[in-house]
Amino acid sequence: MLAARAVRPLDAPPSTGADDDPLQFLEVAEREPAPVPDAWVPVRVRAAALNRHDLWTLRGVGVHPEALPVVLGCDAAGTTEDGRDVVVHAVLSDADWAGEETLDPGRTLLSERWPGTLAPVVRVPARNLVDKPAELSFEEAACLPTAWLTAYRMLFTNSGTSPGDTVLVQGAGGGVSTALVALGAAAGLRVWVTSRSEERRARALELGAHAAFAPGERLPERVDAVLESVGRATWAHSLRSLKPGGTVVVCGATTGDAPAELNRVFFTQLRVVGSTMGSRDELRRLAQLCAATGVRPLVDDVLPLAETAEGLRRLEAGEVFGKLVIRP
Ligand SMILES: NC(=O)c1ccc[n+]([C@@H]2O[C@H](COP(=O)([O-])OP(=O)(O)OC[C@H]3O[C@@H](n4cnc5c(N)ncnc54)[C@H](OP(=O)(O)O)[C@@H]3O)[C@@H](O)[C@H]2O)c1
Fold first, then answer.
1. Residues 6+ away with beta carbon under 8 Å from 153
2. For range 131-150, the mean pLDDT
3. Does residue 19 register a pLDDT over 80?
């Protein structure tokens, strides 16, 4: 079947820098995916969203080397063989793991060890399926499992904020950032964003942000929480934008690692909270939230699977506002 795969050679070292063109290791071709455990159930993929995670996988970051070449893609919405419309939870924990899925030390995301969603069919454990609300299109539902679930947990589980508080979202146009703006505004938070681009700052305001600033700009007042996915380019600004006792929730470091600034952290009693994906239960609640409130993932464009390379090129170039969706 046609699938988009990472075909990075085993002897190529992982690269975290922009010096390495990740697309050189992308192959979109007719190939059979690697086998998965017999008990896993097939889901016909109706829509799959792209994530920066796919670029990391092409760079050899986070992927199990023995899984290569591997079908890319963490996100899917689709239909099971018995006609159930579902959203696929991308976090694969051990079948014997009893706790919250993301805390299993052996957990992986789809495409890190097992074939991902950029193919007509993905196979996953039955427990990883969540009902797709009828109110959401397959394209919208496909955006939920990674970027939107991560944003949900950052805001509602980890930021410690309440309606009326002010949060700063670093970056405006990304998958996680647009989810943070839409969900935060819907939940009654005052949402401020930064972006490198004036046009993207304007679009963030249309999406529900209450103010938008250039990177590093001094804010009118300090905020209760900062939601970080950018890393080195924004980290210092994040720490100095927080009120004493404020919280920075960090889910990623697109621009690389940053100095921790320990003196500022202890002196102003900041809380630094790491956040990764979300549980199946959080995914269910996120889907219900979208169905009930009318909040919807912002889909920038929908491309056929054969055009995955063009989608990933746009993502790498920072040309996407919201989510890019692939239709196998
Ligand atoms: N821990 C987890 O579970 C988890 C889940 C999802 C994502 N992530 C990570 O979170 C990060 C964001 O993911 P994504 O899918 O939202 O990526 P994305 O769609 O590519 O978005 C990238 C974001 O970074 C901002 N940005 C990029 N370069 C920047 C720079 N030099 N200076 C300032 N801002 C910059 C962009 O803002 P503007 O273009 O508006 O300036 C944009 O908001 C990635 O590193 C990803 O791996 C982690």
1. 275, 276, 277, 278, 282
2. 98
3. no
Measured distance CA(73)–CA(250) in Å, rounded? 22
Which DSSP string do the residues of 12-66 spell out, in sequence order? Answer: SPP--STTS-GGGGEEEEE-PPPP--TTPEEEEEEEEE--HHHHHHHTTSSS-GG
For residue 297 and ligand 1, the question of a CB distance below 6 A is answered with: no
- What are the tens digits of pLDDT across the range 239-272? 999 999 999 999 999 999 999 999 999 999 999 9
Q: What percent of the chain has pLDDT over 90?
A: 95
Domain boundaries, the chain: 2-143+297-327, 147-274
Residue 182 binned pLDDT confidence (cut-offs 50, 70, 90): very high
Residue with tokens 């995955």, as numbered in its chain: 308
Question: Among the atoms of ligand 1, which is closest to the Cα of residue 195?
Answer: 41
More reliable by pLDDT, 8 or 312: 312
Q: Residue 311: CB within 6 Å of ligand 1?
A: no
Atom of ligand 1 nearest to the CA of 196: 41
pLDDT at 17: 65
| 96-108: average pLDDT | 96
d(CA 207, CA 189): 14
Distance (angstroms) between ligand 1 centre and the Cα of 254 equals 5
CATH classification of 147-274 is 3.90.79.10, yes or no?
Answer: no
If one residue of 61, 111, 230 were mutated to test the ligand 1 pocket, choosing by the most ligand atoms within 8 A of its CB, it would be: 230
* 231 Rama class: left (phi>0) / alpha (psi -120 to 50) / beta: left
CA dist 38 and 95 (Å) reads 13
Nearest-angstrom CA–CA distance, 32 and 15: 27
Q: Which CATH class is domain 2-143+297-327?
A: alpha beta
